[in-house]
Amino acid sequence: MCSILVVVAAFAVSANVSDHLASAAIDEAVASTEAVVRGFVDPMIGGGGLTTLKGDELAAVDTELEHLVASGKILRIKVWAADGTVVASDLPALRGRHFEPDDDLGDVMNGEVITGLTDANEAENEFEHGLADRFLEMYLPIKPAGATSPIGVYEIYQDAAPIEAQIDATRRDVLLIVGAMAAALLLLLFLAFSGASKLLARQNRELRRSDDRFRSLLQNSIDVQLIANADGTIAYESAAVEHVLGYRPEDRIGRQALDNIHPDERAGAEQLLRDLIRVPSAQITAEIRVGHADGSWIVVEVVGKNLLHDPAVNGIVINYRDVTGRKSLEDELKRQAFHDSLTGLANRALFADRLQHAISRAGRAPTSLAVLFVDLDDFKTVNDSLGHSEGDQLLVAVAERLQASVRTGDTIARMGGDEFAILLEDASEGETPIEVGRRLLGQLEPPFVHGGKELFVRASIGIATTQSHDHTAEEVLRNADVAMYTAKSKGKNRLEVFEPGMHTAALTRLALKGDLERALERDEFTLVYQPIVRLGGGRLSGVEALLRWQHRDRGTVGPAEFIPVAEETGLILPLGRWVLEHACAQAAAWNLISSEPITMSVNVSGRQLQQPGFAAEVGGLLAASGLAPELLTLELTESVLMQDAEAATAMLVDLKSLGVRLAIDDFGTGYSSLNYLRRFPIDELKIDRSFVASLDDGPTQSAVVLSILRLSETLHLQTVAEGIEERSQLAILRDLGADHGQGYLFARPLDPAAMTALIEADAPLGEAAAGEDELPRHSRHVA
């Protein structure tokens, strides 16, 4: 009974071990073969499908299959499509052949792996006759990375003889060992062998899972894994290199790892590699520019570790990834943090930092430094008339001219809007800050040609200097800013050097801004009216409305002081509307009591003229007041018209269509006016008071006025001479043929009640005016 049990047990154990060994051997063979095929063939097929392979691609796959067969481990390999077509094979006779798909092909297309041992003489193996007596036949699904289901099947034949020989030898050995053992050891042997079999199967499963996981990580990682030999040649590089550098992994094997490093960084990279090789287990991190296959340069982040001493690796392991986008973003963020995005100049933060450092250096080694604060005059009119996009382009052109006017070592910054600042270190050397400022103004004088137009840009410049570190950057900038506002208040297009008294004036100006914003609400504004008379008989023909501010604390504030502030803050728009509304209403009332029509002249600012709805606003006010349009004269200065002649012409045409009269105020003091006079629909020229005041100086001055009068006559324009204060001036103007005039000789600006009395009196003005001793010299009104 024991013998029978031992024999039965021996055969049972032998059969069990043989089966397990066969299964393990087959699984091992499949895993090994699959790793090779998937490593070399899968990348050539890609995720696009077998049907997308054409021409050279199919030829490359066939060639790779022939190489695998030539290695000796694989006897035959075919690539099946789902419809039974042999897409690729190591045997040319099979390529492109179509066979009816069997069940095995369908199962594998569902994701299964099918293996089996077959005889060479079976009918299905007709193309494998003569390769071996027995085959290990494998069907593996083709499922590249990114594919959701198999796109084809590998059919692989291996020689089964080594596996079967190994199984037979093992069976014989087991029979001999078990047969020699005592029955008492039968149970122990069975238990031990059974445990060993399970352990082997578990280890094989874990090994397959680990291999699959590692292969999946390599194929799907966005980072490139590279193993280099001690001489720097590439032994292995993962598939991600194709996405990062545009090269196929197989094309990189054997090349130097540093071949495509940027020339400027090659020496540093070589030193890093030498340092890494010298120290076992050393690790380095770096960012290096490398060449892409398309010829561009990208930035990669590299982590390298020395594993030459590790027998499982025996190489330098380098992981790298493309960080070009991140580096570009970092560089752009740094640039934006310290540079103006429009002009590329330094911004306020960078300028303040450099100024503070310059002040600190001046404290250690006393030197003179200066800050020039540049503000473009009336630049808002460009944005309002041409749009912000055109204004931005003009700012870029201005920045280029300013930058070309300073030294390379000087710092020029855009402080915001249309403000620029320039830091001059060692200002005592070479040109003085004042000379630099004058050169800047000169650089801005030529017109900027844009879109077929000539745009004129002027600037006000404030200069602040310091020779010690007692001043902070903020204080120096503030002083330059105050000096700039002083330049603006003195007529613009000029420069001023900071003086301590300017700060007090700036504080006063700031307070004036706040009061001005509330003046309309408090009803602190009034209008006075100066008569305009016919010089031929002294009869009243019209009046000019003049604005006055009765400040609650300061008393009367002159227009010369508050009008520039109103222009700067934008309050000139509601203020201008208020003037037009009240002047039109008053003119309508006076025309009801006057025996002859009386015109009302109102000064219009550049800001008002640039408002798209200004003509409609004037039309609405005329309709509300009941004043006839031809009795309203809008006065504009030459400088306002010349800021943007095209836009000004369009607005004047709109105003003229309402029926109002248009006049050029202070005529003769502007520039290029004669070139545009024919284009503007003007009705009246007002001869500037400076020409009238100099009439007594001789015939030369009379000739200037005469030329203006003749020009007006030629163009059929009415003339009004401003600032007539002397009877001699009146006599000369009459002799020259002037039409109308105004000035203290006829009357001072009058309040509405006094003006009403003058209209009701209906008496000539001029000869009956106040005595000569009552007439002020060089009087000046402000529009």
Describe this structure in words.
- With 783 residues, the chain is an alpha+beta fold.
- Helices cover 47% and strands 20% of the residues.
- Strands 18-19-21-22-23-24-25-26 form an 8-stranded mixed barrel, surrounded by 4 helices. Strands 2-1-5-4-3 form a 5-stranded antiparallel beta sheet.
- A hairpin with a 3-residue loop joins strand 19 and strand 20.
- Helix 1 packs parallel to helix 6 (183-220) and helix 18 runs parallel beside helix 20 (614-625).
- The longest helix has 39 residues, at 2-40.
- Residues 768-783 have low confidence and may be disordered.
Main traits of this protein?
alpha+beta, 8-stranded mixed beta barrel, disordered C terminus, 783 residues
Q: Largest sheet, if any?
A: 8 strands, mixed, barrel
| Assembly level | single chain
Distance between the termini: 136 Å
Task: Quickly count the helices.
Answer: 27
Gyration radius (Cα, Å) is 49 Å
Percent of residues in helices comes to: 40-55%
Give, in spatial order, the strands making up the sheet with the most strands: 18-19-21-22-23-24-25-26
Average predicted local confidence, pLDDT: 84
Write down the overall geometry: elongated
Low-confidence stretches: 768-783
Indicate the proportion of strand residues.
15-25%
Kindly name the structural category.
alpha+beta
Number of strands: 26
